[in-house]
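Cross-posting from the modeling subforum.

Setting up a comparison between two proteins and wanted a second pair of eyes on the formatting. Protein 1 (sequence, then C-alpha coordinates):
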Amino acid sequence: MNRLAVFDCDGTLVDSQANICRAMEATFAAHRLDPPDRNAIRRIVGLSLVPAIAQLLPEAEPALHEAMAEEYKRAFHAMRASAALDPEPLYDGILDTIEALDAAGWLLGVATGKSDRGLHLILEHHGIRHRFITLQTADRHPSKPHPAMLELAIAEAGAAPETTAMIGDTSFDMAMARAAGTHALGVLWGYHTSEELLGAGAHGLADHASQLFAHLERI
Protein backbone atom coordinates (compact mmCIF):
# COMPACT_ATOMS: atom_id res chain seq x y z
CA MET A 1 0.00 0.00 0.00
CA ASN A 2 1.35 3.43 -0.94
CA ARG A 3 2.46 5.84 1.76
CA LEU A 4 1.03 9.34 1.38
CA ALA A 5 2.06 12.59 3.07
CA VAL A 6 -0.48 15.37 2.56
CA PHE A 7 0.58 18.93 3.39
CA ASP A 8 -1.50 21.96 4.17
CA CYS A 9 -0.23 24.99 2.23
CA ASP A 10 -0.60 28.34 4.07
CA GLY A 11 1.25 28.18 7.38
CA THR A 12 2.76 24.78 6.62
CA LEU A 13 4.52 24.89 3.25
CA VAL A 14 4.60 28.67 2.77
CA ASP A 15 4.40 31.77 4.97
CA SER A 16 1.54 33.64 3.32
CA GLN A 17 0.08 35.49 6.27
CA ALA A 18 1.00 38.99 5.07
CA ASN A 19 -0.92 38.70 1.81
CA ILE A 20 -3.90 36.99 3.44
CA CYS A 21 -4.15 39.74 6.05
CA ARG A 22 -3.88 42.51 3.45
CA ALA A 23 -6.52 40.96 1.21
CA MET A 24 -8.90 40.43 4.13
CA GLU A 25 -8.40 44.01 5.31
CA ALA A 26 -9.16 45.26 1.79
CA THR A 27 -12.29 43.10 1.74
CA PHE A 28 -13.63 44.60 4.96
CA ALA A 29 -12.75 48.11 3.77
CA ALA A 30 -14.65 47.55 0.51
CA HIS A 31 -17.74 46.78 2.59
CA ARG A 32 -17.11 49.78 4.91
CA LEU A 33 -16.45 47.53 7.87
CA ASP A 34 -13.69 47.78 10.45
CA PRO A 35 -11.07 45.13 9.70
CA PRO A 36 -10.44 42.36 12.22
CA ASP A 37 -7.25 42.22 14.22
CA ARG A 38 -4.51 40.47 12.25
CA ASN A 39 -4.23 37.76 14.87
CA ALA A 40 -7.92 36.98 14.32
CA ILE A 41 -7.29 36.77 10.57
CA ARG A 42 -4.35 34.42 11.02
CA ARG A 43 -6.50 32.11 13.12
CA ILE A 44 -8.95 31.44 10.27
CA VAL A 45 -6.23 30.61 7.72
CA GLY A 46 -6.90 27.12 6.41
CA LEU A 47 -10.67 27.41 6.24
CA SER A 48 -12.42 27.99 2.93
CA LEU A 49 -13.33 31.62 2.34
CA VAL A 50 -17.02 31.68 3.28
CA PRO A 51 -16.60 29.80 6.61
CA ALA A 52 -13.50 31.92 7.36
CA ILE A 53 -15.39 35.18 6.88
CA ALA A 54 -18.33 33.79 8.84
CA GLN A 55 -15.98 33.24 11.79
CA LEU A 56 -14.67 36.79 11.51
CA LEU A 57 -18.15 38.29 11.13
CA PRO A 58 -20.56 35.85 12.79
CA GLU A 59 -23.37 38.38 13.20
CA ALA A 60 -23.67 39.04 9.45
CA GLU A 61 -26.10 37.38 7.07
CA PRO A 62 -24.86 34.47 4.90
CA ALA A 63 -25.37 36.59 1.77
CA LEU A 64 -22.81 39.08 3.07
CA HIS A 65 -20.34 36.28 3.81
CA GLU A 66 -20.70 35.12 0.20
CA ALA A 67 -20.27 38.64 -1.18
CA MET A 68 -17.19 39.25 0.92
CA ALA A 69 -15.65 35.97 -0.20
CA GLU A 70 -15.96 37.19 -3.79
CA GLU A 71 -14.49 40.55 -2.80
CA TYR A 72 -11.55 38.79 -1.17
CA LYS A 73 -10.84 36.97 -4.44
CA ARG A 74 -10.95 40.28 -6.33
CA ALA A 75 -8.62 41.91 -3.81
CA PHE A 76 -6.12 39.08 -4.05
CA HIS A 77 -6.22 39.06 -7.85
CA ALA A 78 -5.69 42.83 -7.91
CA MET A 79 -2.66 42.49 -5.65
CA ARG A 80 -1.25 39.80 -7.92
CA ALA A 81 -1.95 41.77 -11.12
CA SER A 82 -0.20 44.85 -9.75
CA ALA A 83 2.79 42.83 -8.53
CA ALA A 84 1.95 44.01 -5.02
CA LEU A 85 2.05 40.60 -3.36
CA ASP A 86 4.56 40.16 -0.57
CA PRO A 87 6.92 37.20 -0.94
CA GLU A 88 5.43 33.89 0.20
CA PRO A 89 8.57 31.93 1.08
CA LEU A 90 8.79 28.24 1.77
CA TYR A 91 9.42 27.64 5.44
CA ASP A 92 12.97 26.72 6.38
CA GLY A 93 13.72 23.07 5.65
CA ILE A 94 10.53 22.35 3.67
CA LEU A 95 12.25 21.85 0.33
CA ASP A 96 14.79 19.42 1.81
CA THR A 97 11.99 17.50 3.53
CA ILE A 98 9.95 17.21 0.33
CA GLU A 99 12.98 15.91 -1.54
CA ALA A 100 13.83 13.40 1.22
CA LEU A 101 10.27 12.05 1.35
CA ASP A 102 10.13 11.77 -2.43
CA ALA A 103 13.43 9.89 -2.47
CA ALA A 104 12.19 7.53 0.25
CA GLY A 105 9.16 6.56 -1.81
CA TRP A 106 6.50 8.66 -0.15
CA LEU A 107 3.76 10.04 -2.39
CA LEU A 108 2.99 13.69 -1.70
CA GLY A 109 -0.17 15.73 -1.80
CA VAL A 110 -1.66 19.05 -0.72
CA ALA A 111 -5.00 19.75 0.95
CA THR A 112 -5.70 23.47 1.31
CA GLY A 113 -8.33 26.14 1.65
CA LYS A 114 -6.72 27.89 -1.32
CA SER A 115 -8.28 27.87 -4.78
CA ASP A 116 -6.90 25.66 -7.55
CA ARG A 117 -5.41 28.73 -9.23
CA GLY A 118 -3.78 30.05 -6.08
CA LEU A 119 -2.27 26.70 -5.17
CA HIS A 120 -0.89 26.04 -8.64
CA LEU A 121 0.67 29.51 -8.78
CA ILE A 122 2.49 29.13 -5.46
CA LEU A 123 3.74 25.61 -6.20
CA GLU A 124 4.94 26.61 -9.66
CA HIS A 125 6.62 29.71 -8.22
CA HIS A 126 8.69 27.53 -5.90
CA GLY A 127 9.34 24.86 -8.54
CA ILE A 128 7.72 22.06 -6.54
CA ARG A 129 4.46 21.42 -8.42
CA HIS A 130 5.86 18.20 -9.94
CA ARG A 131 6.50 16.73 -6.49
CA PHE A 132 2.79 16.37 -5.70
CA ILE A 133 0.55 13.73 -7.23
CA THR A 134 -2.72 14.91 -5.66
CA LEU A 135 -3.89 18.48 -5.05
CA GLN A 136 -7.12 19.10 -3.19
CA THR A 137 -8.54 22.62 -2.78
CA ALA A 138 -11.56 24.57 -1.62
CA ASP A 139 -12.78 24.77 -5.21
CA ARG A 140 -13.95 21.16 -5.13
CA HIS A 141 -14.53 20.28 -1.48
CA PRO A 142 -16.28 21.39 1.70
CA SER A 143 -14.12 23.40 4.05
CA LYS A 144 -11.83 21.75 6.54
CA PRO A 145 -12.32 19.97 8.92
CA HIS A 146 -14.61 17.96 6.61
CA PRO A 147 -12.55 14.92 5.49
CA ALA A 148 -13.45 15.07 1.77
CA MET A 149 -10.09 16.51 0.69
CA LEU A 150 -8.14 13.77 2.43
CA GLU A 151 -10.46 11.01 1.31
CA LEU A 152 -10.04 11.91 -2.37
CA ALA A 153 -6.28 12.38 -1.96
CA ILE A 154 -6.02 8.88 -0.50
CA ALA A 155 -8.06 7.42 -3.35
CA GLU A 156 -6.02 9.21 -6.03
CA ALA A 157 -2.73 8.06 -4.48
CA GLY A 158 -3.76 4.44 -4.02
CA ALA A 159 -3.04 4.77 -0.31
CA ALA A 160 -5.08 3.94 2.77
CA PRO A 161 -5.94 6.02 5.85
CA GLU A 162 -3.49 4.03 7.98
CA THR A 163 -0.63 4.75 5.52
CA THR A 164 -1.46 8.46 5.19
CA ALA A 165 -0.40 11.46 7.25
CA MET A 166 -1.90 14.94 7.22
CA ILE A 167 0.68 17.61 8.03
CA GLY A 168 -0.68 21.01 9.02
CA ASP A 169 -0.43 23.98 11.32
CA THR A 170 -4.06 24.36 12.44
CA SER A 171 -6.63 22.54 14.50
CA PHE A 172 -8.70 22.33 11.30
CA ASP A 173 -6.00 20.14 9.73
CA MET A 174 -5.79 17.88 12.77
CA ALA A 175 -9.58 17.48 13.00
CA MET A 176 -9.74 16.68 9.28
CA ALA A 177 -7.05 14.02 9.68
CA ARG A 178 -8.88 12.44 12.59
CA ALA A 179 -12.17 12.47 10.67
CA ALA A 180 -10.48 10.70 7.73
CA GLY A 181 -8.77 8.16 9.99
CA THR A 182 -5.23 9.27 9.06
CA HIS A 183 -2.18 10.18 11.12
CA ALA A 184 -2.31 13.83 12.26
CA LEU A 185 1.04 15.65 12.44
CA GLY A 186 0.99 19.24 13.66
CA VAL A 187 3.66 21.83 12.87
CA LEU A 188 4.51 24.68 15.20
CA TRP A 189 5.70 27.32 12.74
CA GLY A 190 2.19 28.21 11.58
CA TYR A 191 -0.90 29.84 13.02
CA HIS A 192 -2.26 27.63 15.86
CA THR A 193 -0.65 26.71 19.16
CA SER A 194 0.62 23.33 20.29
CA GLU A 195 -2.25 23.13 22.79
CA GLU A 196 -4.79 23.68 20.02
CA LEU A 197 -3.16 21.12 17.75
CA LEU A 198 -3.05 18.48 20.48
CA GLY A 199 -6.59 19.33 21.53
CA ALA A 200 -7.78 18.70 17.97
CA GLY A 201 -6.14 15.27 17.89
CA ALA A 202 -2.54 15.67 16.73
CA HIS A 203 -0.59 12.44 17.12
CA GLY A 204 2.71 14.34 17.09
CA LEU A 205 4.22 17.81 16.76
CA ALA A 206 7.22 19.17 14.88
CA ASP A 207 8.83 22.53 15.54
CA HIS A 208 11.04 22.44 12.43
CA ALA A 209 10.59 20.88 9.01
CA SER A 210 13.74 18.80 9.52
CA GLN A 211 11.79 16.72 12.08
CA LEU A 212 9.00 15.71 9.70
CA PHE A 213 10.82 12.86 7.96
CA ALA A 214 11.55 11.03 11.22
CA HIS A 215 7.94 11.48 12.40
CA LEU A 216 6.57 10.08 9.13
CA GLU A 217 8.98 7.15 8.98
CA ARG A 218 7.63 6.01 12.37
CA ILE A 219 4.10 5.57 11.01
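Protein 2 (same layout):
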Amino acid sequence: MQNLNRATMEYLMQNLSAGMSLVEVRNLCERFMLENGADSFWYYDVGAFVFSGEETTLSISGKDYTTADRRICENDLLTVDLSPQVQRIWGDYARTIVIEAGKVVVHPEDIRHPEWKRGLRMEDHLHHVLTEAATEAMTFEELYFFMNEEITKQGFVNLDYLGNLGHSIVQDKQDRIYIEKGNGTKLSDVKMFTFEPHICLPGSLYGFKQEDIYYFEKGKLKRL
Protein backbone atom coordinates (compact mmCIF):
# COMPACT_ATOMS: atom_id res chain seq x y z
CA MET A 1 0.00 0.00 0.00
CA GLN A 2 2.89 2.40 0.59
CA ASN A 3 4.17 1.70 -2.91
CA LEU A 4 0.67 2.45 -4.16
CA ASN A 5 0.71 5.69 -2.19
CA ARG A 6 4.01 6.71 -3.75
CA ALA A 7 2.72 5.86 -7.22
CA THR A 8 -0.50 7.81 -6.56
CA MET A 9 1.40 10.90 -5.43
CA GLU A 10 3.67 10.74 -8.48
CA TYR A 11 0.65 10.35 -10.76
CA LEU A 12 -1.05 13.29 -9.06
CA MET A 13 1.99 15.55 -9.41
CA GLN A 14 2.19 14.73 -13.11
CA ASN A 15 -1.45 15.72 -13.60
CA LEU A 16 -1.88 18.70 -11.26
CA SER A 17 -2.31 22.18 -12.64
CA ALA A 18 -3.73 25.54 -11.63
CA GLY A 19 -7.50 25.75 -11.98
CA MET A 20 -8.23 22.18 -10.86
CA SER A 21 -10.74 21.90 -8.04
CA LEU A 22 -9.84 20.10 -4.83
CA VAL A 23 -12.72 17.70 -5.51
CA GLU A 24 -11.06 16.83 -8.83
CA VAL A 25 -7.77 16.26 -7.02
CA ARG A 26 -9.42 13.96 -4.50
CA ASN A 27 -11.27 12.02 -7.19
CA LEU A 28 -8.10 11.65 -9.26
CA CYS A 29 -6.24 10.12 -6.31
CA GLU A 30 -9.05 7.85 -5.15
CA ARG A 31 -9.77 6.53 -8.63
CA PHE A 32 -6.07 5.77 -9.23
CA MET A 33 -5.78 3.89 -5.93
CA LEU A 34 -8.89 1.80 -6.55
CA GLU A 35 -7.74 0.97 -10.08
CA ASN A 36 -4.28 -0.05 -8.92
CA GLY A 37 -4.75 -2.31 -5.91
CA ALA A 38 -6.77 -0.67 -3.13
CA ASP A 39 -10.16 -2.17 -2.29
CA SER A 40 -11.29 0.65 0.03
CA PHE A 41 -10.11 3.50 2.26
CA TRP A 42 -9.53 2.87 5.94
CA TYR A 43 -9.90 6.43 7.31
CA TYR A 44 -13.64 7.18 7.35
CA ASP A 45 -13.90 6.01 3.71
CA VAL A 46 -11.92 9.01 2.49
CA GLY A 47 -8.97 8.02 0.33
CA ALA A 48 -7.45 11.48 -0.12
CA PHE A 49 -7.69 14.41 2.28
CA VAL A 50 -6.88 17.52 0.26
CA PHE A 51 -6.23 21.04 1.54
CA SER A 52 -4.89 24.12 -0.23
CA GLY A 53 -3.61 27.60 0.60
CA GLU A 54 -4.40 28.85 4.09
CA GLU A 55 -6.45 25.70 4.75
CA THR A 56 -3.19 23.70 4.87
CA THR A 57 -2.99 24.75 8.52
CA LEU A 58 -6.31 23.03 9.33
CA SER A 59 -6.14 19.90 11.46
CA ILE A 60 -9.42 18.03 11.82
CA SER A 61 -10.67 14.50 12.33
CA GLY A 62 -11.51 12.52 9.20
CA LYS A 63 -15.08 12.06 10.41
CA ASP A 64 -15.53 15.85 10.14
CA TYR A 65 -13.78 16.29 6.79
CA THR A 66 -15.42 17.59 3.63
CA THR A 67 -13.45 18.59 0.54
CA ALA A 68 -13.51 22.37 0.22
CA ASP A 69 -15.02 24.10 -2.79
CA ARG A 70 -11.71 25.60 -3.89
CA ARG A 71 -9.53 25.65 -6.99
CA ILE A 72 -5.76 25.51 -7.18
CA CYS A 73 -4.21 28.94 -7.74
CA GLU A 74 -1.27 29.80 -10.00
CA ASN A 75 0.93 29.88 -6.91
CA ASP A 76 -0.41 27.58 -4.24
CA LEU A 77 0.38 25.08 -1.52
CA LEU A 78 -1.41 21.73 -1.46
CA THR A 79 -1.42 19.02 1.21
CA VAL A 80 -2.62 15.54 0.23
CA ASP A 81 -3.03 12.71 2.77
CA LEU A 82 -3.72 9.21 1.37
CA SER A 83 -5.25 6.24 3.23
CA PRO A 84 -5.84 3.21 0.96
CA GLN A 85 -6.22 -0.35 2.16
CA VAL A 86 -6.51 -3.84 0.71
CA GLN A 87 -7.84 -6.71 2.82
CA ARG A 88 -7.41 -4.43 5.89
CA ILE A 89 -3.72 -3.81 5.16
CA TRP A 90 -3.18 -0.06 5.38
CA GLY A 91 -1.20 2.54 3.58
CA ASP A 92 -0.73 5.97 5.16
CA TYR A 93 1.16 8.70 3.35
CA ALA A 94 1.05 12.49 3.08
CA ARG A 95 2.97 15.15 1.22
CA THR A 96 2.86 18.91 0.75
CA ILE A 97 3.04 19.95 -2.89
CA VAL A 98 4.13 23.37 -4.18
CA ILE A 99 2.56 24.89 -7.31
CA GLU A 100 4.31 27.90 -8.82
CA ALA A 101 3.47 29.55 -12.14
CA GLY A 102 0.64 27.04 -12.48
CA LYS A 103 2.82 23.92 -12.33
CA VAL A 104 4.10 21.51 -9.68
CA VAL A 105 7.63 22.22 -8.50
CA VAL A 106 9.16 18.74 -8.57
CA HIS A 107 12.50 19.53 -6.95
CA PRO A 108 12.35 21.37 -3.58
CA GLU A 109 15.53 23.32 -4.37
CA ASP A 110 13.65 24.96 -7.27
CA ILE A 111 10.92 26.42 -5.01
CA ARG A 112 10.98 30.23 -5.18
CA HIS A 113 8.70 30.99 -2.20
CA PRO A 114 11.16 31.09 0.74
CA GLU A 115 8.67 30.00 3.42
CA TRP A 116 7.44 27.06 1.35
CA LYS A 117 10.98 25.93 0.69
CA ARG A 118 11.81 26.23 4.39
CA GLY A 119 8.73 24.24 5.39
CA LEU A 120 9.50 21.31 3.09
CA ARG A 121 13.13 21.29 4.21
CA MET A 122 12.00 21.19 7.83
CA GLU A 123 9.81 18.16 7.17
CA ASP A 124 12.81 16.34 5.69
CA HIS A 125 14.88 17.41 8.68
CA LEU A 126 12.36 16.10 11.21
CA HIS A 127 12.14 12.72 9.51
CA HIS A 128 15.95 12.52 9.47
CA VAL A 129 16.11 13.36 13.18
CA LEU A 130 13.51 10.66 13.88
CA THR A 131 15.55 7.93 12.16
CA GLU A 132 18.69 8.97 14.03
CA ALA A 133 17.08 9.33 17.47
CA ALA A 134 14.39 6.65 17.77
CA THR A 135 15.29 3.43 19.60
CA GLU A 136 13.35 0.26 20.35
CA ALA A 137 13.37 1.14 24.07
CA MET A 138 11.95 4.63 23.52
CA THR A 139 8.30 5.12 24.45
CA PHE A 140 5.71 6.91 22.35
CA GLU A 141 5.62 9.64 25.02
CA GLU A 142 9.40 10.08 24.97
CA LEU A 143 9.33 10.41 21.19
CA TYR A 144 6.48 12.92 21.50
CA PHE A 145 8.49 15.19 23.80
CA PHE A 146 11.74 14.75 21.86
CA MET A 147 10.27 15.62 18.46
CA ASN A 148 8.07 18.44 19.72
CA GLU A 149 11.15 19.98 21.33
CA GLU A 150 12.92 19.76 17.98
CA ILE A 151 9.97 21.38 16.20
CA THR A 152 10.01 24.26 18.69
CA LYS A 153 13.80 24.59 18.58
CA GLN A 154 13.65 24.98 14.81
CA GLY A 155 11.10 27.79 15.14
CA PHE A 156 7.98 25.89 14.07
CA VAL A 157 4.62 25.01 15.66
CA ASN A 158 2.88 21.61 15.86
CA LEU A 159 -0.55 22.08 14.23
CA ASP A 160 -2.09 18.70 15.07
CA TYR A 161 -5.47 19.22 16.72
CA LEU A 162 -4.63 16.60 19.35
CA GLY A 163 -0.96 17.50 19.59
CA ASN A 164 0.27 14.09 18.49
CA LEU A 165 2.79 13.24 15.78
CA GLY A 166 1.67 9.85 14.48
CA HIS A 167 0.07 6.53 15.40
CA SER A 168 0.47 2.78 15.29
CA ILE A 169 -0.54 0.84 12.17
CA VAL A 170 -3.32 -1.64 12.98
CA GLN A 171 -6.32 -3.23 11.24
CA ASP A 172 -9.03 -1.28 13.05
CA LYS A 173 -8.59 2.49 13.31
CA GLN A 174 -10.12 2.42 16.81
CA ASP A 175 -7.12 0.38 18.02
CA ARG A 176 -4.51 3.00 17.12
CA ILE A 177 -2.20 4.36 19.78
CA TYR A 178 -0.50 7.70 19.33
CA ILE A 179 2.80 9.53 19.65
CA GLU A 180 1.38 11.59 22.49
CA LYS A 181 1.87 12.60 26.09
CA GLY A 182 1.04 9.81 28.54
CA ASN A 183 1.63 6.88 26.18
CA GLY A 184 4.21 4.65 27.89
CA THR A 185 4.17 1.94 25.21
CA LYS A 186 7.57 1.24 23.67
CA LEU A 187 7.98 1.89 19.96
CA SER A 188 9.12 -1.70 19.50
CA ASP A 189 5.85 -2.99 21.00
CA VAL A 190 4.03 -2.18 17.75
CA LYS A 191 4.83 -3.59 14.32
CA MET A 192 4.78 -0.22 12.57
CA PHE A 193 3.92 3.41 13.25
CA THR A 194 3.52 6.62 11.30
CA PHE A 195 5.43 9.84 11.78
CA GLU A 196 3.47 12.79 10.38
CA PRO A 197 4.45 16.18 11.80
CA HIS A 198 1.97 18.85 10.71
CA ILE A 199 3.80 22.12 11.22
CA CYS A 200 3.88 25.81 10.39
CA LEU A 201 5.83 28.92 11.29
CA PRO A 202 4.18 30.93 14.10
CA GLY A 203 1.28 32.99 12.75
CA SER A 204 1.70 31.70 9.21
CA LEU A 205 -1.11 30.94 6.75
CA TYR A 206 0.72 27.87 5.44
CA GLY A 207 1.07 24.40 6.93
CA PHE A 208 3.31 21.51 5.93
CA LYS A 209 2.94 17.77 6.33
CA GLN A 210 4.99 14.71 5.45
CA GLU A 211 3.88 11.26 6.55
CA ASP A 212 5.66 7.93 6.29
CA ILE A 213 5.42 4.54 8.01
CA TYR A 214 8.36 3.27 10.08
CA TYR A 215 9.41 -0.04 11.63
CA PHE A 216 12.44 -1.49 13.39
CA GLU A 217 14.75 -3.97 11.71
CA LYS A 218 17.71 -5.33 13.71
CA GLY A 219 17.40 -2.39 16.09
CA LYS A 220 17.46 0.25 13.36
CA LEU A 221 14.46 2.35 12.41
CA LYS A 222 13.51 1.91 8.76
CA ARG A 223 11.07 3.71 6.48
CA LEU A 224 8.54 1.37 4.86
